[in-house]
Specification:
This protein is α/β, with parallel strands linked by helices and 301 residues long. α6 packs antiparallel against α8. It folds into 2 domains: 164 residues, 3-Layer(aba) Sandwich (Rossmann fold); 104 residues, GMP Synthetase, Chain A, domain 3, CATH 3.30.300. The longest helix is centred in the last third of the chain and has 18 residues. A hairpin with a 3-residue loop joins β2 and β3.
C-alpha cells in the first residue's frame, strides 16, 4: 500500500448515463484493460463494477454502473436502477456520459437523478468521432452548460481514445487527499470467476443481438486451476425453451462459437490456458425473482 502524503489522492468516481452511451467502453479505455463487457445492445452492464486506475500520486476508483432507465417492469431492471442511485450518493465525483449531439428524455431522467448531488459532475460527451461537422460541438456544449452546473464538459471518443488523457488529468483534482485503498497493480475488485461469467455473457449478447431478449445470464459452476490449465464450466440461463434453441444453434454451432470467443478473451485476461465448457439451461422467471437475482450476484445478500 502507498503511504499517505500531502500529494497522494484517492477517491471514487461514478460513471452514469442512460443505456448504451459507452460507459463501459470509457472505463476499459481509462484502465487500458478490459474489465467491463460491452456490446451494441443497451443494458449490457448489469452490475456495479469497480475499475482501479493508479498513477504515481493518485488512485481513481471508477464505478461503472448499469444504464439508468425508466423501464422498471421487472425486478432486474429495478435492481439495476437502485444500483445507480446508491452509487451516486456515495462517491467523490460523477462522470455523466452522453453521446454526440443528442439529448433525450432518458438523458433528462439521469440528470434529474443528479440534481440533488453535492459532488462535482463532469459531463462527458462521448462518440464525437461520429459527429461529421465538428463546428456543431461548441453550440451543443454551450446548450449543455445551461442545463446544469457541470464542473467540466469534455468531448471524447472512448472507443478511439480521443481526449481521454485530458479526462484523466481533470478528474485528479476532484479526488480527496487520501492513501491508496488498493494495491497499485490491482485493476478491479471483482473476482476472476465474476469476470469469466461476464465474458461469456458478452459473447452471448454480441452473437445473438435482437434474437435473444434480456432474459439471459451466466453462472459459473466450476473455476479451478489444474497445473497450467484453468478449467471453467459455465451455465447460460435463459427464460424459455425457444431461447435455449437459439443459443445452442444448429448442431450446437452457435454455442461453440460463443465458447471459442469467450475462451480466447479469458486466456488473454487470465494469462493462462483455459478449458471452457458451456451448457444452456432454462430457468423461467429468473429476471423477476429476487432469490434468483441474489444467488446470481445481482443483489447483495
Amino acid at each position: 500500500m502507498t503511504e499517505i502524503s500531502a500529494t497522494t489522492r484517492c477517491g471514487f468516481v461514478a460513471i452514469v448515463g442512460r443505456p448504451n452511451v459507452g460507459k463501459s467502453t470509457l472505463l476499459n479505455h481509462m484502465l487500458k484493460q478490459k474489465i467491463s463487457i460491452t456490446s451494441r445492445k443497451p443494458q449490457t452492464t448489469r452490475h456495479r463494477i469497480l475499475g482501479i486506475a493508479s498513477g504515481t500520486d493518485y488512485q481513481c476508483l471508477f464505478v461503472d454502473t448499469p444504464g439508468f432507465h425508466g423501464n422498471i417492469n421487472k425486478t432486474l431492471n429495478r435492481v439495476m436502477n437502485e444500483t445507480v442511485t446508491s452509487v451516486v450518493n456515495d462517491v467523490d465525483a460523477i462522470f455523466f456520459v452522453v453521446e454526440r449531439l443528442t439529448w433525450s428524455a432518458a438523458d433528462e431522467l439521469v440528470l434529474s437523478l443528479l440534481q440533488g448531488t453535492k459532488v462535482p459532475v463532469l459531463l462527458v460527451i462521448n462518440k464525437i468521432d461520429l459527429v461529421k461537422d465538428k463546428k456543431e460541438l461548441l453550440p451543443h456544449i454551450q446548450a449543455m452548460s445551461e442545463k446544469f452546473d457541470f464542473a467540466e464538459i469534455v468531448p471524447v471518443s472512448a472507443l478511439g481514445g480521443h481526449n481521454l488523457p485530458s479526462v484523466e488529468e481533470l478528474v485528479k483534482k476532484y479526488l480527496p487527499e487520501s492513501p491508496f485503498l488498493f494495491p497499485e497493480d490491482q485493476v478491479t475488485d471483482r473476482s476472476s470467476r465474476f469476470l469469466a461469467a461476464e465474458l461469456i455473457r458478452e459473447k452471448v449478447t454480441r452473437q445473438l443481438g435482437d434474437e435473444l431478449p434480456y432474459e439471459a445470464t451466466v453462472e459459473i459452476e466450476k473455476f479451478e486451476q489444474d497445473g497450467k490449465v484453468l478449467h471453467i464450466h459455465g451455465l447460460i440461463l435463459v427464460d424459455k425453451k425457444g431461447q435455449k434453441r437459439i443459443v445452442v444453434g444448429k448442431d450446437g454451432e452457435r454455442l461453440k462459437t460463443i465458447g471459442t470467443s469467450a475462451r480466447e478473451d479469458m486466456e488473454r485476461s487470465f494469462d493462462t490456458k483455459v478449458m471452457l465448457n458451456l451448457w444452456v439451461k432454462v430457468k423461467s422467471g429468473w429476471a423477476d425473482d429476487e432469490r434468483a437475482l441474489q444467488s446470481l450476484g445481482y443483489i447483495d445478500p
